């Protein structure tokens, strides 16, 4: 399928799809005229990349784990370790944010009493 068709099937802009290709997240074949062509599995791959971006991973973090997520043959212990490390960083950030909310609540409460 063409980049326009893949864009229609996934709701992801052609510009983003070209970025995914540049970042080695989405392989594309080229026609003799240089046009990109994608297989049907690309729809699922784009959806997975989108989920990983939504989970807060960067393209640099996605690149090494993506092969193991799309092909069991490439699955290693590093895959789970990397994802757990990311989850741990997110949990730490959430804890910091919750502390900030508590501090703001204290300030608001103090201001409301005075």
From TrEMBL:
SMART domains cross-referenced by the UniProt entry: HTH_MERR
Q: Which Pfam families match?
A: MerR_1
Per UniProt, what is one GO molecular function of this protein? DNA binding
Which PROSITE patterns does this one have?
Answer: HTH_MERR_2
Which keywords, in A-to-Z order, does the entry hold?
DNA-binding
Look up the signal peptide feature and give its range: none
Residues in HTH merR-type domain copies: 1-68
Q: What is this protein called?
A: Transcriptional regulator
Which source organism does the UniProt entry give? Answer: Brachybacterium vulturis
């Amino acid at each position: 399928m063409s980049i326009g068709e893949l864009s229609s099937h996934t709701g992801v802009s052609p510009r983003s799809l070209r970025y995914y290709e540049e970042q080695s997240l989405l392989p594309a074949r080229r026609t003799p005229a240089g046009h990109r062509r994608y297989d049907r599995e690309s729809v699922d791959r784009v959806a997975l990349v989108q989920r990983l971006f939504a989970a807060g991973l960067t393209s640099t973090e996605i690149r090494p784990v993506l092969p193991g997520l799309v092909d069991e043959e490439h699955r290693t212990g590093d895959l789970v370790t990397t994802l757990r490390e990311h989850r741990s960083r997110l949990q730490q950030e959430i804890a910091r944010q919750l502390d900030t909310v508590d501090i703001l609540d204290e300030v608001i409460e103090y201001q409301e009493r005075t």
